[in-house]
Amino acid sequence: MSRLTVFAYGVMAYAVFFVTYLYAAGFVGNLVVPKSLDSAPTAPLGMALLIDLGLLSIFAIQHSVMARPWFKRVLTRVVPRAAERSTYTLASSLALILLFWQWSPLGGVIWDVQDPTGRALLYGGFAFGFLLVLVTTFLINHFDLFGLRQVWLYLLGREYQPLTFVTPGPYRLVRHPLYVGWLFAFWSTPTMTLTHLLFAVVTTAYILVAIRFEERDLIDAHPEYAEYKRRVPMMIPIPTKRASATVRTASTIGAFVLICSWPLHTLAQGHSHGKPSNSSALLQAVREATERFKDVTVAESEDYHLMFGCVTGSDTGAMGLHYVNLPLVLDGELDPTHPEIVLYEPVKGGGLRITGADFLVFADAWDAAHPGEPPQLLGQLFHRFEAPNRFGLPNFYTLHVWAWKDSPTGTFVNWHSNVSCDGFDGAQQ
Predict the structure, then answer these.
(1) Which residues contact residue 175 at a Cβ distance below 8 angstroms, ignoring those fewer than 6 apart?
(2) Domain that holds residue 290
(3) Domain end position, chosen among 234, 267, 300
(4) Cβ–Cβ contacts within 10 Å for residue 4, how many?
(5) Structural domain contains residue 427
(6) To which H or E segment does residue 57 belong?
(7) How far apart are CA 54 and CA 58, in angstroms?
(8) How many structural domains are present in the chain?
(9) Are 295 and 255 found together in one domain?
(10) Are residues 69 and 162 in the same domain?
(11) How many alpha carbons fall within 13 Å on the CB side of residue 423?
(12) Hey, how many other C-beta atoms are within 10 angstroms of the C-beta on 116?
């Protein structure tokens, strides 16, 4: 397929998705569309129940199986890698269109709220849910999520770089605000029919199961997600011991109310995970502390030695070579002027190029000495790696500072998309 064909395919897939999303709002809310969730029954109850469960199962299987990494590897043998996400988006839209077309209402009424205020609140919850879903996609890059960014970069002949892990806006309160939006949309209705209840119960069950698989993939792709999962609740913003209940509750209410009024261009900007206001100070401190280590023999003379081979990722770039100072690792202290690890990139033809530093402390020792206080340097939070891990280390906190080679996905991310182990002639990890 030509680049232009792949781009046109991606645009078409997105257009189908967008129309499907708009129809879904009308379908679930019984608004405007010719056939909705609670249209008049057309089949016996038992037959209608089997049809609806079958349609929901088709969507659930498609949505889950196609999202798994193994399926993506198989799919990209058939379609260009740049079109993989667009294909997923199109398949999901087609599964929903089939559901809209063949849905068989059951009838029956579970509750019917007639009070005007109650009806207004429930319709408001429904609208809030669909708006939260849309806004959340922009927070995590709407156009990447639905494949447009991938096909656009492919059209330009530019290499696709995976997004870095970020926790903007409501992601600091719950791990899955997008699913929170769907639950508001599915359950907020003044008239709950048997049909609507079936739809809400099955989709809720699917969401709860899907989260388990999704988070497993997220931890594999972003090891720092394990620490995020430990700190942030899944979908209900429950106060933690680390924050005042009053402050956390106020923040929760305020964030979810204000998100409806924030401009989309502001939301789309996002914020990098743990990005501090004085990040430039940390960057400068690391540069000054590691300037002399541009000559790797100087680092070796100061007890830094190569460990782990050359660390590379499957499709996220690499960390490169870790020259580790074990006494600094074992002292349990953090000092921006004395990094535990100096990072290098092998150069083709021989030689090493310094790329930055890595600060590391073992988690159990740190947590015991600093209960409730995750490690940070000049306001920059560390990422947590759980054991077992590829390095064979116990649980540890780490912070990469790419001080000597600009990273397009952020100065403090774990993986540098422009670092390569191609020039390394030893073992890669």
Answers:
(1) 215, 228, 229, 232, 233, 234, 235
(2) 279-401
(3) 267
(4) 11
(5) no
(6) helix 45-65
(7) 6
(8) 2
(9) no
(10) yes
(11) 14
(12) 9
Q: Going by C-beta distance under 8 Å and a sequence separation of 6 or more, which residues neighbour residue 188? A: 122, 123, 124, 125, 126, 128, 129
Upper half-sphere CA count for residue 298 (Cβ side, 13 Å)? 10
Overall pTM > 0.85: no
Amino acid letter, 119: R
Q: Are 270 and 144 in contact (CB under 8 A)?
A: no
Asked, as a colleague might, if the bond just before 388 is cis with ω within 30 of 0, I would say yes
SS3 at position 41:
coil
What separation in angstroms does the CA of 402 have from each of 276, 292, 299, 397, 409?
15, 16, 17, 17, 11
Pairwise CA distance, residues 140 & 164, whole Å:
10
| Domain identity same for 152 and 186 | yes
pLDDT digits (tens, 9 = 90+) for 18-76: 999 999 999 999 999 999 999 888 889 999 999 999 999 999 999 889 988 889 889 99
CA atoms 132, 135, 141, 142: torsion sign:
positive
Q: What is the CA radius of gyration of the chain?
A: 25
Most confident of 1-5, 104-108, 120-124, 160-164: 120-124
Measured between alpha carbons, how far is 337 from 284 in angstroms, rounded to an integer?
10
Residues 154 and 255 in one domain: yes
Written as six digits, the tokens of 189 are: 């209705």
Q: How far apart are CA 403 and CA 356, in angstroms?
A: 5
Does 411 reside within a domain? no
Whether the Cβ atoms of residue 188 and residue 123 lie closer than 8 Å to each other: yes
Q: Which two tokens stand for residue 87?
A: 């294909």
Q: Same domain for 209 and 307?
A: no
- Yes or no: say if 323 and 296 are a contact pair by the CB < 8 Å rule: yes
Tens of pLDDT, residue by residue over 357-374, are 999 999 999 999 988 888
DSSP output for 340-371 = SEEEEEE-TTS-EEEEEEEEEEEHHHHHHHST
* Judgement on whether residues 232 and 293 belong to the same structural domain of the protein: no
Question: Within this chain, do residues 218 and 357 fall inside the same structural domain, yes or no?
Answer: no
Give the C-alpha separation, 410 to 202, whole Å: 39
Cα 193 from Cα 52, distance rounded (Å): 14
- Do 368 and 238 belong together in one domain? no
